[in-house]
Specification:
heterodimer; A: alpha+beta; Cathepsin B, Chain A; seven-stranded antiparallel β-sheet; B: mainly beta; five-stranded antiparallel β-sheet; four-stranded antiparallel β-sheet; globular
Chain lengths: 265, 348
């Protein structure tokens, strides 16, 4: 039953990836678009449906609500993701996609070379205004079969009943070693809510390659492609919540600011 | 030990607040309370409600508060000067595109801000504007008088700490930054002294630059644990910082907050093991710390092992220093119709 449901989700996702567009302009010139001009009522409804189906297939949603997060639900989970520095000030999207693809390449044992950031920027339609998350998910999905199973979906978290649990469950489940068709999730963050940025403000994509809920506060491992050495690198950092600073709040506030989706997972 | 206000002082603060709201006294902020700290000093905490849901980097100059506000979806951001008495805002800087203002600092003479990779300064009196840098790196400049310091890029794309005299227009490279990674591009002034951190030949180092003499001095941490300092800010003989244990694997959760004692030549923690700080700000003789639950505590910078106070009930999102030493903590509204609250904290 679960397999049938999962096949349906995969079909929906692949169909959806043809619906989302490519080249879009406008919004904040910091790597990530604020609003997604490619969104239509139809594509938005399609993304929501696909998100609900994926969560149901993964067992992280029950009847539209979430179960209470238990301690040590995920333990320590990591995925091999290579860190690539973004080649322009506005290519955090293409660099994050390349980082996530590096996991699939390793995981699948594929001998195909990773696409360059230039190739990915063209595919995503990145402009100096940045990228859209839906186009990034679409670009990732175009490598399905090249690097094994590559199936991503662009989603928000503020449209759920519990954005914090949604954030943790999506990432935790995708990084768990037993998950079939796992991903290396990409998040869109407002950086001022990430403590190590010390209040510096930007809208920025990064890949998440680890989770550790054996520690308190809970941590995730970010793979940050930032062009600046001060922020580039792989780090364990606090997840926080929707009210305490950390990766979750950074993603939550980025979501509240505009219509561009904040997770490719 | 965490101490709140004694009941007698609560009554006095309430009477003061009532008195200030009476007709004829409306020219001062009404919502101020006092916390006696027991050493003959006191803290005043003034609450200001802004006409915005959220804001960024509020700083007090005279009776005004400068802050960054968003102009709404796709409209970019502005630096405004807000008058809390008249409840009026005046736009000072506005991004012409949907850009974000990444950082800004202000004193009574200068406003310095970054928009993505460009760094600007404006003299407040005349409006005269300077482009300071077009470095690709996002930076967090520190301002003191006419001097602004930041971690900039050389032509060879290595990092260096530079100081520009905004009045004369002279920029001086004061030292290379060996490890421009994670913690080391946040300089801070203490009087004429600039401090920042670095990792040189595997050793964690506090660096300081005396702008009067031009001398750069180093303090190495020789102990084995938590030897890599970041976010350094000086107060007299102590350099406060958040120290980390490793530079090969960054982990925000493995940290200690404390100060470097130039006398003992050691880093001395001031928080228990396992404490995780989200931010550290030193200003006006106070050390302000926001922990991982967003609770703000302050202590006297000259008595770091003394009493610890909670000047704000409930969480704060951030805390920021003003050029006159006032600390401003703030709490953004949880919903679109709410209002951002500022808490101005001063030591008397």
């Amino acid at each position: 039953m679960k397999h049938v449901l999962f096949r349906s989700v995969v079909a929906t996702l692949l169909l959806f990836s043809t619906l989302v567009g490519t080249a879009w302009a406008a919004s904040a010139r910091s790597g990530a678009l604020l609003n997604d001009p490619g969104l239509t009522a139809e594509s938005e409804a399609s993304m929501r449906k696909a998100t609900a189906e994926k969560e149901a297939a993964l067992g992280i949603a029950t009847g539209g609500g979430f179960s209470i997060l238990s301690l040590n639900k995920y333990g320590l989970q990591t995925r091999p993701v290579t860190n690539y520095r973004q080649e322009t000030t506005y290519w955090c999207g293409p660099a994050s996609v390349r980082q996530s693809l590096s996991f699939h390449r390793t995981d699948s044992g594929s001998s195909a070379g990773l696409p360059s950031q230039t190739t990915l920027a063209n595919k995503i339609g990145t402009t100096s205004d940045g990228s859209s998350t839906a186009a990034m998910a679409s670009a990732l999905n175009s490598y399905n079969g090249v690097f094994g199973s590559v199936i991503y979906l662009a989603s928000n978290i503020t449209d759920t009943s519990n954005p914090y649990e949604t954030f943790v469950n999506r990432i935790g489940t995708m990084l768990r070693s037993i998950t079939v068709n796992a991903t290396a999730p990409i998040i869109l963050a407002q950086t001022k809510y990430i403590p190590r940025y010390n209040g510096v403000s930007s809208r920025h994509y990064m890949t998440v390659s680890g989770i550790n809920d054996n520690v308190s506060p809970m941590q995730m491992r970010s793979v940050d492609p930032h062009y600046s050495s001060a922020y580039y690198g792989v780090r364990w950092e606090n997840v926080g919540s929707t009210s305490t600073n950390g990766l979750c709040k950074a993603c939550y506030e980025a979501d509240r600011a505009g219509s561009n989706r904040v997770m490719a997972w | 030990m965490v101490t709140d206000r004694p009941p007698a002082k609560l009554l006095a603060a309430a009477l003061l607040a009532i008195a200030l709201t009476l007709p004829g006294c409306a020219s001062r902020p009404a919502d101020t309370r006092q916390i006696t700290t027991g050493d003959g000093a006191s803290l005043s905490v003034t609450k200001v409600e802004l006409p915005y849901r959220a804001c960024d980097k509020p700083q007090k100059v005279g009776e005004s508060i400068y802050l960054v506000v968003s102009r709404g979806e796709d409209k970019g951001s502005s630096i405004v000067r807000y008058d809390p008495l008249r409840r009026k805002a005046e736009t000072i800087v506005e991004t012409t595109d949907p850009q974000l203002i990444g950082w800004f600092v202000v004193n009574d003479e200068w406003l310095v801000w970054s928009v993505e990779q460009e760094l600007f300064a404006r003299r407040l009196r005349t409006g005269e504007q300077q482009l300071l840098s077009t470095s690709r790196d996002l930076c967090a400049p520190a301002l003191r008088g006419d001097l602004v310091a930041w971690d900039g890029l050389t032509k060879e794309r290595t990092h260096q700490m530079v100081v520009r005299d905004l009045a004369s227009g002279v920029t001086t490279a004061i030292a290379p930054v060996a490890l421009a990674d994670l913690y080391n591009n946040f300089p801070a002034w203490d009087g004429r002294r600039l401090v920042w951190t670095d990792v040189i030949d595997g050793m964690g180092v506090y660096r300081s630059y005396d702008s009067s003499t031009g001398v750069v001095a180093d303090h190495e941490i020789t102990q084995d644990d938590f030897r890599y300092p970041g976010y350094a800010q000086a107060a007299g003989e102590r350099i406060y910082s958040i120290n980390f244990d490793r530079v090969d694997e960054w982990d925000w959760g493995v940290q200690r907050l404390g100060y470097f004692s130039a006398v003992a030549k050691r880093f001395v923690p001031i928080v228990p093991e396992g404490f995780v700080a989200n931010s550290l700000v030193v200003a006006g003789g106070l050390v302000a710390v926001v922990d991982s639950e967003q609770e703000l505590t302050v202590r006297a910078a000259d008595e770091p092992h003394g009493a610890v106070y909670r000047p704000v009930r409930g969480r704060v999102d951030f805390v920021q220093a003003s050029s006159d030493g006032t600390l401003i903590a703030w709490r953004e509204a949880a919903n679109k119709t709410g209002r951002c609250l500022l808490f101005l904290i001063e030591r008397h």
